Amino acid sequence: MKARNGFVSNSSSSSFVIGIPKGNSLEETLDEYFGIENTKGIIHEMAKAVVDSFVRNTEEVFEDLPELISWINRYGRQREFSEYELQLIELVKKGFTVYYGSISDEWDSWDRSVDMWLCYTSVNVDEPGLYIEHEGGY
């Protein structure tokens, strides 16, 4: 199992962070990145399921620095920021909205099968209008 300060990735769940410019829609930005309009059939359905999984499993949304720092320090730890936390802070400073969530591999219905797949698959993007950090567990 991987251990990481502020980020969970193991065989039962994996955390993700998505950053997009403030004012943009998370779902529309991901739809564009994954080419939802340009796909058909099973590829379209799978790409849409990945987008839906990230949107559905978002737990926290940060638009400003005090809100993010408060969340980082939620357990009252007084320490230096980790490299991961500094990356989140930098995204907010650049004018991004940061989405944080986790995806579980618990099987409760067929529509959650993509969640299971994402638990074991990394999706990492660092482009001007989109940042995704999602390390699949193992």
Question: Can you walk through the features of this model?
Answer:
Helix 1 runs antiparallel to helix 2 and helix 3 packs antiparallel against helix 4. This protein is globular. Helices cover 36% and strands 24% of the residues. A 5-stranded antiparallel β-sheet has the order 2-3-1-5-4, with helices on both faces. With 138 residues, it is of the alpha+beta class.
Helix-strand blueprint:
Blueprint (H helix, E strand, L loop, with lengths): L12 E9 L4 H8 L7 H16 L1 E5 L2 H8 L10 H11 L2 E9 L8 H7 L3 E5 L2 E5 L4
Antiparallel strand pairs: 1-3, 1-5, 2-3, 4-5
Helix pairs in contact: 1-2, 3-4
Biggest β-sheet description: 5 strands, antiparallel
Average pLDDT works out at 84
Class per helix and strand makeup = alpha+beta
How widely separated are the two ends? 7 Å
Task: Give the percentage of residues in beta strands.
Answer: 15-25%
Number of domains: 1
The share of residues in helices is: 25-40%
Q: Given the structure, what is the number of helices?
A: 5
Instruction: Report strand order across the widest sheet.
Output: 2-3-1-5-4
Radius of gyration: 15 Å
Ranges with pLDDT <50 over ≥5 residues?
none
Element-level helix/strand string: EHHEHHEHEE
Coarse shape: globular
Q: How many strand units?
A: 5
